[in-house]
Each structure stands twice: as C-alpha cells, then as structure tokens.
Amino acid sequence: GYNYFFSPLSKVPAPRTAHLGDYWLLWQGVRFNRCFTVDESFKTHGPIVRIASNKVAVNSIPNIQEVYRGHNYRKSDWYKGFTFDGLHNNFSTDDPKFHAFISKWSAPPFRKDNLVKGEPAARRILNQFTRRVKLSGPRLETVSLFRLLALDMMGAIVLGCDFRQVETGKTHPCVLDIDRFMIDKQLLPYLPGWAYWTLRCIPLQALRSVFESGPRFLKYAAALYDDAVEDESSERLNILSNLKNFVDPKTGESPPEKLVISQAAAFLFAGADTTTVSLAYIVWELARTPAVYATLRAALEAAIPDPDIIPGVQELRDIPYLAAVIKEGLRLWAPGQSVLERVVPAGGASHQGIYLPAGTVIAGQAYSSHRREDIFPDPLVFRPERWLKEIDGKQTLYEDPEMLAAYWPFGIGLRGCIGRPLAEMELHMIIATVVRRFKIKPAPGTNEKSMRSECTVYFFCSLTLYQTS
Ligand code: HEM
C-alpha cells in the first residue's frame, strides 16, 4: 500500500509490479534478465523508471552524467558485498577520502608509460596462446581460453605474478571462484534476508563453496602479495610490489598489509572476467560478421606484414579500424552494462522533473544508453564504421561528441574504471593477434540466444578458430 500509493517514488512511471516492492527486480535478477527488462521499461515508460521500492533507473544522458560525474552520488550498499574481511578497496568504498587514498597507490602501475613495459610479457603469453590454439584442434571453447589469457595477461603486466595458465593449460582455482564470488556478491544480495540465511544453512557442497569464495579470494591475494617482487630488469611497476613498498612522501606512512591484500583481491575479480567477456563478444561479432572481419584482417595485414610479430599497443592504436572494432564491441557488449547503483545525496534531487528524496537509489545502465536509436542509428548492428570518418583523405577514429557522451563501457568520472588503460591494451593486442593469425567462425550452438546474458560469464560461447595458412 505505502509503496504503491504514498511513497514519493509512486510518481515515477514503472511496470505495475515494480511499484509494489522489491520482488519484481529480484525476479528479473534471478532470471539473469534485469538489464533487458530495465531496458524494455525505458521503452515503455520513458527515461526515468521505478524499478523497486526505493530504486529508480534513468536513461537520459544529462541525468546519467550528473549521477556518475563526481563523488556527490555515492555508491550504494550493494558495493559493500565486495569488501574482503570487512576491509574496503577502491571498488567497494563509498568514501571519497579513502578512495583518493587507495587510488594514490594503485594508479601508477596503470599509467600508459608503465604498461608499455609489460609488452614483452604480453607477447610471450600471446605466443603461448597461439601454440595452445594449435594444440587444441579446430574447435575451441573460447570463453575458457580467454579466461586463462585475461588473467595471465593481467598477472604478468600489472600484478607482478605469473599464473602460467595458458602455457600449462591448467586453470588457477581463483578463476572458478570468480564465478562463485559473483553469485554470492552480485546475485544473492537481491534475495530477502531470510532466504539468504536459509541458503547459507543448507549443507550442500556447491552452496558452501559459493559462500566460502570470498575468504578463498583473500587467500589467493595474500599468496600473490607474499610472492610479489620488483621486476628490476624492466623497471616496471607492478601493483603488488608498488603497494608493498609504497611510502607516502608527506606522511612517511605505508599502506597496511591487510588493505593491500584486499585491494589485490579486488583487482582479481574486477580485471579478469571483464576482459574475458569483452573479448568473447568482440570475437563473436567478428566471427558472425564476415565483412567486418575481412576489413579488419586487411587493415592488420597491411600494418603487420609478418604474422609472427605482435606490435606494441601504440602501433596498434594507430590502426583506426581496430580501435573502431573494439569501441563498437564494447558499445554493444560492455561487461558491466547493467544498472550501477548510486545514492541520491542529502537534500534530494530532481530528475526528469520528479523529486527524488535523499537516499533513493538511482542508476543508469550502459546497455540502454548504448542502444539509444537517436544517438546510435541501427543500434543493434555491429558497425565499427560509425566510429570512423574520412579526414584529409585518411580514415580516422572520429568520436562524435553526442555519441561519446552516451558511451560509458568503463563507467564515468572519478569512479570510472582504473584498469581501463590495461584493458584497452589487452584488447588491442589480443584481438590483433587472433585476427591476424586465425580465421574464425561461430560453432553450431553459438547464436543470439546462447550469447544472451547479463554480461557475466553465464553464457555458452563456443567459436571455432581455424588457423590460416
Ligand atoms: C574491458 C574491460 C573492463 C571493463 C569494460 C570495465 C568496466 C568497469 C566499469 C563500468 C566500472 C565502474 C563500475 C561501477 O561504477 O560500479 C569499473 C570499475 C573498476 N574497474 Fe574496470 N573494467 C574493465 C577492466 C578492468 C581491469 C583490467 C581492471 C584491473 C586490473 C579493472 C578494475 C576496476 C576497478 C578497481 C574499478 C573500481 C574503480 C573505482 O570505483 O574507483 N577493470 N570497471
């Protein structure tokens, strides 16, 4: 009754059941359908929609910019699930001071000049990947393989550790725990408290391993921390040794060990599967869109005459068609594209002419912004050309300001993705290698339906990679 008639949010347009409480959103979440249903609701009800008793979603670009730009709208309680041992990291915290404090240590290894020093390690892993593809035969489970690749690359380039998964073909246990951890932290929090605690009491091994994944994560991170060493030969900063040895020049203080370990655990879950999912979708789009594959292949053959050579990221960034393929892939299939919750600050705020009291949870979703027909014509078509323009007779990456404002696969502003430069480096190097060295086509069973997901790894994606002559 209160939710439906008297709540200040009852004025916000919504599917009828969303006005009644939190079950509508929960139901969409357990069906892995939240992102798509919220998107449908925008189409039916307009740019602001109520999605739960205290939650609204917005799809107007100025509203989204206002919410995500600064620290004014803090992260919601949902992010608290991503603490480890009660300790926050730069993903989970809603405190701007703590965020600035922890970002100060974490940011330097992600600087482009530092990442470039990781290129030899990235090349070594990509050559191992090529050998593994050849060993595996023509049909490949690409998601599993990309998961090995993404974690190995992140480990070698910025974490200062060698997972050696691609080389040995053995999956590190933390990869499976990423799945369990995401179920525990992303899905189960939507259950009512009694249902969550009932599940926790059921003595089923599969459930136990879900609930114990958080502590296990911390153990993996602690082991990495213990092993982290400076790579003196390359003068490359890695996150763990950087955090381990960091001394604040002003205060002389170092970050507490427990905090560093919690931060390392955050990088493990935030950096591996995001890259995996992006890769899987981009390669799938290339496999099912032969004209785009052919154009990219030709551009790469021109830029990389010898397929045994893997160019550096700067050289690859100078191939506009490759950059446009990655941009377009992330437009359609960014891994974190469902609602990212923030909280309306003290004093409340007005969005789309509706007053939202302080404490209302508000969110946009990249999935919907990226499919705005008025901004991205034929939004469902994978068309890298939309990001290109002929300037002075040369094909150039062109970022139309309206498209750019609506494009946020890595989030926006101060709480945007700290790993973006690394992710972009990995995507450039991996996609260039795959396309330059292999012909690809989707295997039977990989189709629109099998690829439909909330953009976690819960989808079946099997592509056949053929080696070219
Ligand atoms: C294609 C790959 C990636 C995509 C699309 C992506 C996307 C995002 C998005 C959308 C956010 C904002 C989340 C929110 O507001 O809730 C985010 C934050 C974050 N990402 Fe990424 N990410 C990627 C790769 C990585 C990598 C490789 C790392 C680390 C090695 C990483 C570490 C983080 C961290 C620590 C945050 C929290 C930043 C903060 O709140 O200040 N991400 N990412």
Helix content: 40-55%
Overall form: globular
Largest sheet: 5 strands, mixed
Major sheet strand order: 1-2-8-5-3
Structural class: alpha+beta
Q: What value does the average pLDDT take?
A: 88
Roughly what fraction of the amino acids lie in strands? 5-15%
What binds here, in terms of ligands, is:
protoporphyrin IX containing FE
For the CA atoms, what is the radius of gyration?
22 Å
Tally of extended strands?
A: 12
Number of helices: 22
Can you characterise this structure?
With 469 residues, the protein is an alpha+beta fold. Helix content is 51%, strand content 10%. A 5-stranded mixed beta sheet has the order 1-2-8-5-3, with helices on both faces. Strands 4-12-11 form a 3-stranded antiparallel beta sheet. A two-stranded antiparallel sheet has the order 6-7. Helix 13 packs across helix 15. The relative contact order is 0.15. The model has no long low-confidence stretch (mean pLDDT 88). The structure holds protoporphyrin IX containing FE.
